[in-house]
């Protein structure tokens, strides 16, 4: 049974989410502030974290940064702040999704299931996709560069896989977003995709400022720029 940590200072919202998660078969635990969340995360492991940005004793962004230093556990931000700068900031820190309040519980549950599906490692025949010196192990949903593991968020992984699965083909921003985002939100736009591309380049390119693996095709979109091999 998947375990979800809900970090939310509004007791009504937190208890409502906790109830809905349990109805859907999840185990759920609630932390009402930054300190409580930090204490729980130091002692327990979770399959996903729902994280409010505005906490009474600290920033959800800071908590997300701490989480990312320790683990690749999926993070979904919950916040009433729907300004684009906050959306991009959260995604740039490694959040996997971003839900603004007020939200419908059904949509939130759908987002949670969608993110967790991306992290699931289903047994399958081993398949490797090589993009330059980067190897994508699709059976284990892992990425390696020159033999070293590269830690990607689920969205970064899906973005890389989407481009690698279409070698030499220019994909429009809309096509890419349809592949990496199962449930579209209003904040999914050109700027957020640019954030993903920038983060991914920083992790897999030798020189992110002069990329050789992921090319920008001005006015059209992006494409994988090196010969791709599938094994």
TrEMBL record:
<keyword id="KW-0902">Two-component regulatory system</keyword>
<feature type="modified residue" description="4-aspartylphosphate">
    <location>
        <position position="52"/>
    </location>
</feature>
<dbReference type="InterPro" id="IPR039420">
    <property type="entry name" value="WalR-like"/>
</dbReference>
<dbReference type="Pfam" id="PF00486">
    <property type="entry name" value="Trans_reg_C"/>
</dbReference>
<feature type="domain" description="OmpR/PhoB-type">
    <location>
        <begin position="126"/>
        <end position="226"/>
    </location>
</feature>
<feature type="domain" description="Response regulatory">
    <location>
        <begin position="3"/>
        <end position="116"/>
    </location>
</feature>
<dbReference type="InterPro" id="IPR001867">
    <property type="entry name" value="OmpR/PhoB-type_DNA-bd"/>
</dbReference>
<dbReference type="InterPro" id="IPR011006">
    <property type="entry name" value="CheY-like_superfamily"/>
</dbReference>
<protein>
    <submittedName>
        <fullName>DNA-binding response OmpR family regulator</fullName>
    </submittedName>
</protein>
<feature type="DNA-binding region" description="OmpR/PhoB-type">
    <location>
        <begin position="126"/>
        <end position="226"/>
    </location>
</feature>
<dbReference type="InterPro" id="IPR036388">
    <property type="entry name" value="WH-like_DNA-bd_sf"/>
</dbReference>
<keyword id="KW-0238">DNA-binding</keyword>
<keyword id="KW-0804">Transcription</keyword>
<dbReference type="InterPro" id="IPR016032">
    <property type="entry name" value="Sig_transdc_resp-reg_C-effctor"/>
</dbReference>
<dbReference type="InterPro" id="IPR001789">
    <property type="entry name" value="Sig_transdc_resp-reg_receiver"/>
</dbReference>
<keyword id="KW-0597">Phosphoprotein</keyword>
<dbReference type="GO" id="GO:0003677">
    <property type="term" value="F:DNA binding"/>
</dbReference>
<keyword id="KW-0805">Transcription regulation</keyword>
<dbReference type="Pfam" id="PF00072">
    <property type="entry name" value="Response_reg"/>
</dbReference>
């Amino acid at each position: 049974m998947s375990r979800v940590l809900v970090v939310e200072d509004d007791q009504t919202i937190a208890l409502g989410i906790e109830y809905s998660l349990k109805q859907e078969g999840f185990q759920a635990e609630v932390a009402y502030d930054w300190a409580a969340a930090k204490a729980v995360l130091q002692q327990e492991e979770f399959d996903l974290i729902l994280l409010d940005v505005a906490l009474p004793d600290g920033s959800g962004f800071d908590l997300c940064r701490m989480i990312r230093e320790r683990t690749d556990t999926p993070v979904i931000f919950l916040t009433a702040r729907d300004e684009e700068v906050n959306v991009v900031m959260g995604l740039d820190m490694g959040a996997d999704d971003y839900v603004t309040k007020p939200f419908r519980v059904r949509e939130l549950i759908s987002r949670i299931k969608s993110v967790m599906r991306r992290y699931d490692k289903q047994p399958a025949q081993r398949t490797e996709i090589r993009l330059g010196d980067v190897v994508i192990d699709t059976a284990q949903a892992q990425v390696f560069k020159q033999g070293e593991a590269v830690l990607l968020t689920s969205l970064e992984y899906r973005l890389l896989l989407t481009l690698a699965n279409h070698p030499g083909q220019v994909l429009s921003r809309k096509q890419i977003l349809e592949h990496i985002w199962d449930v579209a939100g209003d904040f999914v736009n050109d700027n957020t995709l640019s954030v993903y591309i920038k983060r991914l380049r920083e992790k897999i390119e030798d020189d992110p400022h002069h990329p050789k693996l992921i090319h920008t095709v001005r006015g059209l979109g992006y494409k994988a720029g090196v010969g791709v091999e599938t094994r």
